[in-house]
């Protein structure tokens, strides 16, 4: 049995379970620590690392793992007091969208676009009921979170695209996928 992540991400060989879990743990840690990296852009806080991790994990591990990593990173950030409930809809919807697009298309630009649209538009809309009903806030409208979410996710998508292309050129990407 080969120690590889299957290309269709539907099942992982048993010998790769520990390696897969370790990669997921590293991605979760990068997302949590990366939340301290933010840049003010147009009156919004641009925090691109979670979105970069969403794409990396979707491409390397698949959609289920990507959503799980987004959930764990959001939960840890909230437990540490460095995140808000808004982290859940944005990161998890984006992770699912880019994971499914990559699973079925294997197209990196479409995957990055799916992360940006999934987090920016769908996650931004999904954040409205979270703010209104769970946080007791009175957001100005259904689309109020779309622009701030888009700013972060577009930056993260660009970072992920560049990083994956660099990993592909250097051979690191195939080494990660083959398990060597």
From TrEMBL:
The keyword Membrane applies. This is Energy coupling factor transporter S component ThiW. InterPro entries: ThiW (IPR012652). NCBIfam families: thiW (TIGR02359). The chain crosses the membrane at residues 20-43, 55-76, 82-102, 109-130, 142-164. Keywords: Membrane, Transmembrane, Transmembrane helix.
């Amino acid at each position: 049995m080969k120690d590889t992540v299957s290309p269709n991400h539907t099942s992982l060989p048993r010998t790769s379970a520990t390696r897969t879990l370790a990669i997921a743990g590293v991605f979760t840690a990068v997302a949590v620590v990366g939340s301290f990296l933010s840049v003010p852009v147009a009156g919004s806080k641009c925090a691109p690392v979670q979105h970069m991790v969403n794409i990396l994990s979707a491409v390397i591990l698949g959609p289920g793992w990507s959503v799980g990593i987004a959930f764990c990173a959001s939960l840890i950030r909230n437990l540490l007091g460095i995140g808000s409930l808004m982290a859940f809809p944005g990161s998890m919807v984006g992770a699912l969208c880019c994971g499914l697009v990559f699973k079925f298309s294997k197209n990196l630009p479409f995957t990055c676009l799916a992360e940006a649209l999934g987090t920016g538009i769908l996650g931004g809309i999904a954040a409205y009921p979270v703010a209104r009903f769970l946080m007791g806030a009175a957001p100005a409208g259904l689309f109020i979170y779309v622009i701030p979410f888009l700013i972060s996710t577009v930056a993260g998508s660009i970072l992920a695209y560049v990083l994956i292309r660099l990993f592909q050129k250097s051979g690191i990407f195939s080494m990660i996928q083959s398990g060597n």
